[in-house]
Amino acid sequence: MLLDPVFPCLLLPAGTFGRIDADASMCRRTGSKERQDGGGRGRGRSDHLPGGGDPAMKPMKPLSIISAALLFLTVLGAGPVAGQQKNLILATTTSTQDSGLLDVLIPLFEKRTGYFVKTIAVGSGQAMVMGEKGEADVLLVHSPEAEVKFVAAGYGINRRLVMHNDFVIVGPAADPAGVSGLKRAAEAFGKIAARQTTFLSRGDNSGTHAEERGLWKAAGVNPEGQKWYQQTGLGMGETLNIASEKRTYTLSDRGTYLALKKRLDLAVLVEGDRQLLNIYHVIEVNPAKWHKVNSAGARAFAAFMLAPETQAVIKTFGVDTFGSPLFFPDAGKEEERLGR
User: Fold this and answer.
1) DSSP 228-259
2) SS3 for 162-204, per residue?
3) Cα gap 120→127, rounded to integer Å
4) Minimal CA–CA distance to 30: which of 45, 44, 41, 42?
5) In which band, very low, low, confident or very high, does the pLDDT at 340 lie, cut at 50, 70 and 90?
6) pLDDT band at 68 (very low <50, low <70, confident <90, very high)
């Protein structure tokens, strides 16, 4: 059984059901002029007349229309539609992609479940916007305050703790702002602002950007519009590369920084402040809001991320290369106790 290349319908043998009109939410067996002239895959079953007619075509009776529609839906239900449900759209932060973690976890998930994952790595804010529009099935994000609002608004369900790492303030080893070794990240931000040394922000409404805004607020500084404050609008990896080229300060998650460290001319200058804790949650997009969401796949992915076997992979990820893990598994833990 073939599918029409122009309209999502079956190419039926001539005379079987006649013409099905596309305007009636069905399809046309003889559709565009290109197909009538021989440009489409539909040609070859029968020759078309100059006016688009088919010598085997006959006017369709109402009962035939219903029969054709039922046949079409039955065939789709048995094949492509069922197959499409194996596709899962994951919207996630760039740090899980840039660090290489998803390159390890996604193949494991696909192999164990049979799902095919389309990963869209954007800022956490953009990932949640996708969830609000029903353009993703499941989220893996790290912007806790925004996540709580997302779930409270009814867009997400079953928000669960997966893992954490931390943010670090990185910059040139020369450290012109003199922030190296400071215990409080907000104090470091205050010194950067006071000395007007260039700071590179992602500026993309990501979880990292949200963390950065919180630090500026804690420092009592509004950097917007300042010449020393520049925004990339890019992901973490790209922002780190630009900061390295320009020898500027920026805020990064530790995982992405370590993954790219060999090619960066940047040093970790401030770390260890509990305010720099970077927490990741998995959230299923609410199928009550968007009926086409692959809720079964979202549940399967969430369960996979929390499974002991996956948490064990997260625990050791990066140890061989960097001597320490890039993330710390947290399934089943109390979030309030993290970093203590």
Assistant:
1) TEEE--S-HHHHHHHHHHHT-EEEEEHHHHHH
2) EEEEEEEEEECCCCCCCCCCCCCHHHHHHHHHHHCCCEEECCC
3) 8
4) 42
5) low
6) very low
CA distance linking residue 64 with residue 242, whole number of Å: 64
State the average pLDDT over residues 116-141: 96
- pLDDT tens per residue across span 305-327: 999 999 999 999 999 988 889 99
Give the angle 139-141-143 at the CA atoms, nearest 5°. Answer: 135
Query: What confidence score (pLDDT) does residue 27 get?
Result: 37
261-277 burial, b if ≥16 CB within 10 A, otherwise e?
A: eeebebebbbbebeebb
- How many of the other CB atoms lie within 10 Å of CB of 129? 17
Domain covering 84-162+280-322+330-337, topology: D-Maltodextrin-Binding Protein; domain 2 (3.40.190)
Q: Which residues pair with 116 in a beta bridge?
A: 87
Residue found under tokens 């979880």: 207
Burial string for 210-224 (b: 16+ CB within 10 Å, else e) reads: bbbbebbeebebebe
Farthest CA pair distance, the chain: 85
Q: Domain 166-276 sits in which CATH superfamily?
A: Periplasmic binding protein-like II (3.40.190.10)
Distance, in Å, from the CA atom of 243 to the CA atom of 96, rounded to the nearest integer, reads 20
List where CATH 3.40.190.10 sits in the chain.
84-162+280-322+330-337, 166-276
Which residue in this structure is represented by tokens 């997009």?
Answer: 285
Report how far apart, in Å, the C-alpha atoms of 329 and of each of 78, 144, 261, 269, 280 are.
40, 17, 22, 25, 10
Q: How many C-beta neighbours within 10 Å does residue 296 have? A: 15
**What's at 5, amino acid-wise?**
P
